[in-house]
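Hi R.,

Here's the chain you asked about this morning:
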Amino acid sequence: MNRSWLVRVLRDPLTVFVVLGALVFAVDAMVGEDDPRIVIDDATLARLADQWRAQAGREPTPEEIEALVGDHVREEILYREALRMGLDRDDVIVRRRLAQKLAFLSEDLTVPDEPAEDALGAYYASHRDRYRLPDRMSFSHVYFSAERRGADAARADAKAELSTLGEPPPDAWRTLGDPFILSRSYAERTVQEVQDLFGREFAETLAGLDTLAEWQGPVASAYGSHLVRIEARIPARDLALDEARDRVRDDYLVDARKSANEAFYRALRERYRVERVTED
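And here is the predicted structure, written out as tokens:
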């Protein structure tokens, strides 16, 4: 009997309301009084309207504004009560989000000034290796598909075709071999770019070919075999400041912001003392 009575009591909405109210008052007694006001000012209304426009693509109606205000008030109340009850403590996600928010805020507050010409020149001189163009090559190729012909046959066919290349007409090579999903000619590509397209073995082989304007091969790739003609080689060189000015400026500002953020953190760090406690 006692048990059924307890179940009926717990199912009674009034009883649940009273219990929750008592809990809220108990928490309030423990944590003390806070400002109960929730201020809806022009800035708040503007922010809510901006959020609506960004999502809906139009101006909110007066009724929608009132609904937004109601949602904002509800969220604010739940947020404050969650803080009062300590629900933000020992929550990894909340800790990380707050830390990220402060980090983003510090980045917004530490916007570096535009660098003067002498500062830009000094930065360029101390980071010259960043503004160096690597070796590049221009080349054409005739492709023999390993998937269509088989790996051994593709290589053999490429080797047999090599003797016919270079004979008139000069552009006959464009009709030879198999269709290729990418281009048949490439201009001023770095070894890394060639590797990304054809694979490491192909790129390293091309980098070692010294003869220009002659067909050579077969050269293996991730796709099959190729006959290749190196059209030109462009040696590595340092970019002059005028050529790299935009990149130098952007890098200068990024590094200046990083330095300012680190200085901001060091200033905060000095306010704290880290103590390690170990159990014996």
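One quick note: Residues 138 and 153 are 27 Å apart (CA to CA).

Cheers,
M.
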